[in-house]
Amino acid sequence: MTPRNMTTVSGFLLMGFSDNHELQILQALLFLVTYLLDSAGNFIIITITTIDKQLQSPMYYFLKHLSIMDFSSLSVTVPQYVDSSLARSGYISYGQCMLQVFFFTGLAWSEVAILTVMSYDRYVAICLPLHYEVIMSPRKCTWAVAAVWLSGGISGTLFTASTLSIRFCGHKIIHQFFCDIPQLLKLSCSNDDFGLLKVSTFIAVMGFACFVGIAFSYCQIFSTVLRMPSAEGRSKVFSTCLPHLFVVSFFLSTGICAYLKPTSDSPTALDLMLSIFYTVLPPTLNPVIYSLRNESLKRAVKKLLLSEEFIGKNYVCSVFSAC
Questions:
Q1: Phi/psi of residue 12, each to 5°?
Q2: What is the pLDDT of residues 41-85, one digit of tens each?
Q3: Which residue among 16, 18, 75, 104 is least crowded, i.e. fewest CB within 10 A of its CB?
Q4: Do residues 217 and 122 make contact, with C-beta atoms less than 8 angstroms apart?
Q5: Cα separation values, 85 from 17, 27, 182, 272, Å
Q6: pLDDT in tens, 168-181
Q7: Could you tell me which residues come within 8 angstroms of residue 177 by beta carbon, excluding any fewer than 6 positions away?
Q8: Sign of torsion, CA 287 291 292 294?
């Protein structure tokens, strides 16, 4: 589909990373392999945190929902890009684009929110251990996760409603592999994108508040850890907190940089790399980071992969709740 033809249809043309068809196929295959590996990693985490009785603490409960969000986030963008690249079209309908806006922005905010909750969970566990069971009771954890998903739905609804109010014109070419809001703003015909800018500002302020909360939690955590007399205890705390801190820093820094960086009419390689950094890499790295740095999780993964008896017994228990 040529740029001229794009002026007469309601959809958009996703340019992706290259105009060369051979490179498009190679990139699509790389994205497909990444998606499959991410799906496998997150599926393993979701499975073991559901059926292993030793991994039923709030930390693993939140990790399970983070894995669900990671899998869902990649599923929103990557399959569509792989399909359009292999079909050599790059076309995405208006409805599909709005669905991408809704789910991607909603899941992105949900991930920020769940990472904030996870940092608070670590703060209570390390700094207030005597009150942990009361503060992080199962009921409160359930309510916290419900609030995370609800806030994500609200965020996605606000972004989508604001985007629907925009009138698009011109060639409707998106220099990205998915319907990214900064790229959509460039296609606005007039000043009718003020509502979307207000929503973006509001979410940015809320995101900054989450970052402050995360930073405060970790300042308290590290202050407490450094006073621990046991080197083994410090090592155990750092092994669970540092991966989480890395995920938060990487996700927020790349996302903020991409959205605050002024967009140009001729996107650079940096623009495309940043989009990969905050859309593809965090969901892909999360299972690896949490698995490699968490001894309990590694033992559970080995147990799951090597023991057929473990799989069968726990699956039956999880279904019938009779064990």
A1: -130, 160
A2: 888 888 888 887 778 889 889 989 999 999 999 999 888 888 887
A3: 18
A4: yes
A5: 10, 8, 22, 16
A6: 876 788 878 888 88
A7: 14, 16, 17, 31, 77, 81, 272, 275
A8: positive
What are the φ and ψ backbone dihedral angles of 61, each rounded to 5 degrees? -65, -45
Q: How does strand 173-174 pair with strand 12-14?
A: parallel
pTM (whole model) above 0.85: no
CB 180 within 8 A of CB 100: no
Q: How far apart are CA 70 and CA 111, in angstroms?
A: 8
Write the class of the CATH domain 5-320: mainly alpha
What does the buried/exposed string (b/e) look like for 9-33 if buried means 16 or more CB atoms within 10 Å of the residue's CB? Answer: eebbbbbbbeeeeeebeebbeebbe
* Number of CB atoms found within 10 A of residue 190's CB: 8
- Please name the amino acid found at residue 1: M
Residue 219: CB partners within 8 Å, gap ≥ 6? none
Question: What is the DSSP secondary-structure string of 250-316?
Answer: HHHHHHHHHHHSPP-SS--HHHHHHHHHHHTHHHHHHHHHHHHH-HHHHHHHHHHHH-HHHHHHHHH
What pLDDT shows up at residue 257? 72
Per-residue pLDDT tens over the stretch 279-290 = 888 788 777 777
